[in-house]
Write a structure and sequence with these properties.
The complex is a heterodimer of chains A (267) and B (262).
Chain A (H helix, E strand, L loop, with lengths): L2 H13 L3 H30 L3 E2 L2 E2 H19 L7 H6 L3 H5 L4 H31 L6 H29 L9 H15 L10 H7 L4 H4 L1 H7 L5 H29 L9
Antiparallel strand pairs in A: 1-2
Chain B lengths: L1 H18 L3 H25 L11 H35 L3 H4 L5 H7 L4 H20 L6 H26 L2 H4 L6 H7 L12 H8 L9 H9 L3 H28 L6
């Protein structure tokens, strides 16, 4: 077995090691977020006496809020502290001895988690379309879903580099998980994970599109919902590519100047 | 009682010296919660760009509710959050032994041991925001009404941590590292929405079985729309029931505790 397949299979075993927790959390989180979002937006639509707002009706709004949290989980991959915790307690040392770089190892474990959530997204969207929207199976719908899933996965690669740059700050600071939480807030808020981008004022949208977040969250969701053209998908990939280069270069420099500070204390 | 109070003061003192040791982390955490508050306020501000009323409340009234749940969150973060984070690890690693043999209530010890100083600063921020939102309301302010609202929010904070612990304690049986705490955080979103958006059975669920609506939304309703005996009765009954449930789960959990790997 090649080294990368054994890392992936190890990671899958880890994800599935507490099955009851995993499924209760997955089903519970999805159901609760769906119910709350639907209740909120029904109330907003009712108070205005309209059936649609900013291009959303209740069905599409519900779908949006169904995709957003799973999409965010795809981007987040492994949980916070996937590097900083190990730097803090000294277990990071093992990566310096592995026959592959820590970047390769972390990329594999992170993206295995992301891929797992991509599969969850597929199941959720298909079930919702079939049972709640009663939508007939159409090749375009399937293609949109595939394209959206691919965008989320590419987004996870970009987010991993951004997360790595932040996590490596722990070579200087003792604890950086709060920075990762802040990053998560920004991602959801500026990316359209809390409220669809079309609800923000025009000036705010212009500013938000200067950041990578709408491309990581909003565009993939809208792609799955079939609201995005092929050209927009290509633009999204291109923009994410540029951000990825920026973050990777940052990781390179942060690691180069920070690695000498690593002491391996605790091991 | 006096013994517990003096013990708690020791906890607070230790927590202060520990927090100030890691100054950068201390600052980051304050900033993190500040951003959380900003995002929550902005969420409703953006919604109110599209509607003048939500769940029967205008923007100023909604901000009173938002300030309420941010304050509940700050109380929880200050008093309980760090302790709740460590709880599953104590159970899994067998470290709970050290708390069971001490001559104080283990529940008191494990849930109040760490006082989060950075969150206390955030609590002061939310309290200031709370006062500001109340002053923005039209009409005369009644002192006792504000006091009742604050007391109900504190009760909400207690209810919040009680539900959280009930969701964590299944680790006694599942031996997982988190219990159902991630699910709890997702459910916590129900606390951050006014209860009137929920209809029928959903409102009953969020007021009884999963009583997130009682944490901040009912107190805001009582403050904004006047006291109704029924609301107070539901709040008292549910809080009491959840306390009983927590002691039952804790007792059953301890019977199942194997002290593995200690």
């Amino acid at each position: 077995m090649k080294w990368w397949t054994s890392i992936i299979s190890q990671e899958i075993k880890k994800i599935l090691s507490y099955r009851s927790d995993f499924w209760v959390t997955f089903v519970g989180q999805t159901a609760i977020q769906l119910v709350i979002a639907r209740a909120l937006w029904s109330s907003v639509f009712e108070s205005q006496g309209v059936v649609s707002m900013q291009g959303f009706n209740l069905e599409t709004m519900t779908l949006y809020y169904l995709i957003a949290p799973v999409g965010t989980r795809i981007l987040l991959g492994e949980s916070f502290g996937f590097i900083s915790r190990e730097i803090y307690d000294g277990t990071f040392t093992k990566y310096l001895l592995y026959p592959l770089s820590f970047v390769q190892y972390k990329t594999l474990t992170y993206l295995t988690n992301s891929l797992f959530y991509v599969l969850q997204l597929f199941i959720i969207v298909m079930l919702y379309r079939m049972f709640f929207m009663k939508a007939a199976f159409e090749p375009t719908m399937f293609l949109n879903l595939m394209a959206g899933m691919a965008l989320f996965f590419i987004g996870a690669v970009v987010y991993l580099s951004l997360g790595m740059a932040v996590e490596l700050i722990s070579l200087w600071a003792d604890n950086v998980w709060s920075l990762m939480v802040m990053l998560r807030f920004f991602t959801a808020f500026l990316g359209g994970g809390f409220i669809p981008m079309s609800f923000y004022p025009e000036w705010a949208r212009r500013i938000m599109y200067l950041t990578p977040f709408p491309y990581l969250v909003s565009t993939p969701i809208r792609t799955i919902m079939g609201d995005v053209s092929g050209a927009e998908v290509m633009k999204c990939i291109l923009v994410m590519g540029v951000w990825w280069v920026i973050f990777r270069v940052s990781v390179h420099f942060i690691w180069r100047s920070g690695q000498k500070r690593y002491t391996g204390v605790g091991q | 009682m006096k013994r517990y109070l003096s013990l708690y003061l020791y906890f607070v003192r230790f927590s202060f010296s520990k927090s100030l040791e890691f100054r950068m982390d201390f600052t980051f955490r304050i900033l993190m919660d500040t951003i959380y508050y900003f995002v929550n306020i902005m969420f409703f501000k953006v919604i109110y760009l599209h509607t003048p009323l939500l769940a029967g409340w205008n923007e100023d009234q909604m901000m009173v509710f938002v300030a309420g749940y941010l304050m509940v969150d700050a109380i929880n973060m200050t008093l309980f959050s760090t302790n709740m984070w460590y709880l599953p690890f104590l159970i899994n690693k067998g470290d709970l032994d050290y708390y069971l043999i001490r001559p104080v209530s283990p529940l008191f010890f494990i849930s109040l041991r760490e006082f989060s100083v950075n969150s206390f600063i955030n609590f002061l921020m939310t309290a200031a925001f709370f006062i500001y939102t109340i002053l923005q309301l039209e009409g005369p302010l009644q002192f006792w009404n504000v006091m009742l609202y604050s007391a109900l929010l504190f009760n909400g904070a207690i209810l919040h941590v009680t539900i959280q612990m009930i969701m964590i304690l299944p680790v006694f049986w599942t031996q997982s590292s988190r219990g159902f705490v991630d699910l709890f955080y997702s459910m916590g979103l129900a606390m951050e929405r006014p209860h009137r958006i929920y209809r029928g059975w959903l409102r009953i669920i969020f007021s009884t079985i999963l009583p997130f609506a009682l944490i901040a939304s009912y107190p805001a309703k009582i403050f904004l729309e006047g006291l109704e005996g029924k609301d107070i009765l539901i709040t008292a009954l549910v809080t009491g029931s959840f306390w009983l449930l927590l002691s039952l789960v804790w007792k059953k959990g301890l019977e199942n505790y194997s002290s593995a790997s200690s």
